[in-house]
Amino acid sequence: MAQDDPVVSAQWLHEHLGMPDVKVLDASWYMPVENRDPWEEYQVAHIPGALFFDLDGIVDRTTDLPHMLPSEEAFAAAISELGIKNQDKVIVYDGKGFFSAPRVWCPDDAVLKSNAANKAVERVYNGEQKITHIQIRRFDGVAPEPRKGVRSGHIPGSICVPFPEMFDGAPNLLSSDELRQKFQQAGISLDQSIVVTCGSGVTACILALGLYRIGKHDVPVYDGSWTEWEAQSDSDYPKVTAPAC
What we know:
Oxidized Rhodanese, domain 1, three-stranded parallel beta sheet, globular, alpha/beta, 8 helices
């Protein structure tokens, strides 16, 4: 396992499985329209010793938005209950391979990053900062949202980068050079500040993972993402629903 690489191989995990400082989390989660229960599937089969991390349970209880990050204190309490210590190596996986696991990888300091993302977006619309906003979701406003009552569209100025483009056919996360090329082809300057977002803050973490692999470690995830943005007034939170990607 490379020191700065956020991804390990199945062989690495097999060789280190059962070591006292290696903790494994099953963070499987599925879109509402898939009608799959990750907890039931975990009980049927999971990696030996893996604990279930409930993305819809370890959340901010003060908001109606789906699976928002809890406070730093609440998250620390949940992690402690799972028996995870600061010095542990935490390996996270999910039922799809690369889908919801990056959401758990992000919270090492994601509570602070999420707040930073919200403030960064506000600064952009106040004309205070140049920032690149990457959105990975139903960008064109044509495909329906999976959540009832939520319109499809995107935040103005966003660049569309579909998260499957981060993987090869296995799927494995692309190499640093391949990822860097993907972002450059999308017209993204890696020298600028970047915020990533999606429908509700889950798959955006996949892009944050890809950016981390190429050395950009300061990318916040807009936690409320489109679900929060779309619910605000159009005059205060502008929206685009015409095809743009």
